[in-house]
Fold this protein.
Amino acid sequence: MIDLKKRNKIMSRSIKLGHCICDPRQKCPCALFKEKNVCHCAGEHLEEKTVETQLTRLVENAGCASKISQEYLKKILSGLPEISDPKILVGTGTCDDAGVYRLNDETALVQSVDVFTPNVDDPYTFGQIAAANSVSDIYAMGGVPLTALSIIAFPSDKLNHKIMIQMLLGGLDKMKESNVAVIGGHSIKDREVKFGFAVTGIINPLKIVTNSGLKPGDNLVLTKPIGVGVISFAHQLNRAVSTSIADIGKSMAELNKIPSETMVETGVSACTDLTGFGLLGHLGEMVSQSGVTVRLNVNDVPVFNGVLDCLREGIVSGAIERNKEYVSRYLEREGDIPEEMEYLLCDPQTSGGLLIGVPEEKTELFLGRLNEKGVRCASVIGKVACRSEGKIILSNKQSGEKDSRFSFGRKDEKTEMEKKVSCCGNENLKECCPPPGNGHGIAGGHNAESAFAGFMEAAGNSGSISLRNKELMAIALSLISRCEPCLKLHLEKAIKMGIGEDEINEAVWLAVSFGGAPVRMFYSSVTGKE
């Protein structure tokens, strides 16, 4: 019930001042009062509704793309006095993931803090990602996280408090999974949602893994695919494929605990975790602090499905541009590197994987242990070549070992031949686009089938035409050819890719414009749609 006496008293004061006392940027009566008949200054609140809120639509920069650029940050830090304390084992001087403070010969504190904006819409999932991202800095140093303090910014006058509760619950559950006790926190009212944690852990001073230990001969291992920032930005524009959104959500919520424990068991040279500065930004710090040159094979970098298509369609965020400009000082190119690949390597990650320098003789053991423990996407993406002032050589040499595109959390069990002949991801290939070869009376047998499989793979991959547009073309062509299995397959795939009904209808009518009423009747008979 509204207390009109209280409202009138407070609003009279605000009107006399010429400003709303809750938000001095507005005059009284404010926009909220005019629209909703609610005065926050008088303690009134909007009627609570269980309405779904798309958190990513409420922020300018999603996830760790909201970080201040490396260039700007270093300019600020260079103007601050250096802190001298012999107990500081790792400080701000090396731009490492966390600070380390020695307590005694056996124990040191390792501390970090991370706060960022939502890059997924579900509050609970965002809370999980914020927690996983925050403890990742401790894991990157080889430490064991113990306690955390939550930090949350929330527009409490605009959003339902249940959203904040779900964020906190997601964070608490993920911290529990990390065996971390959340012992307090801090909250502020803000226009944008932000969430994160300050985390404290312990580490043996003799076993700290820093970003400055790369040595010639080390292999560079990355434990998660990249492309989180691209998909998040595409989602803000309503142009992301639903399966890609789900994939990055699973990846970001996964802890780096197992890779961290495994690298400590195995013994590695250096480590950092990937966040807002992108793969090249964080690798740039590694090569600079270590004094080495790294040759990075861009074709071996694991990438989420749909990312390269987004980049080819011009979905490139301002954060990518800022990162790209900064890392140019470290880069050399060996061969032609596609522009979209350079954009990808500068894509800001949120709760990304660990980037680890592993001695060559330990690499096979390290990867084997990760695989046994369920970390399937870990990949060797480069090698430390020699000592230098810090350089990254981008190479596009084809390794031929694997397809570097991943759907996170799904291990691909298909053989190379099966991958090649799956023109559209259809396991029942003979029902859709059957290849010539044995059983079809065509000479050449297996060679012809292999050649055709290669052709189908090339035709089905994205190039100058995106996969999204090719799928719409496939629907139209399936109709013209009256192939029922083809049509069902491509309609299903289009829906999974997030292609809207309006777009599908346009492809259908394009086919009808060429094939006439029989094509329309065929479509209706297959789909049941009039």
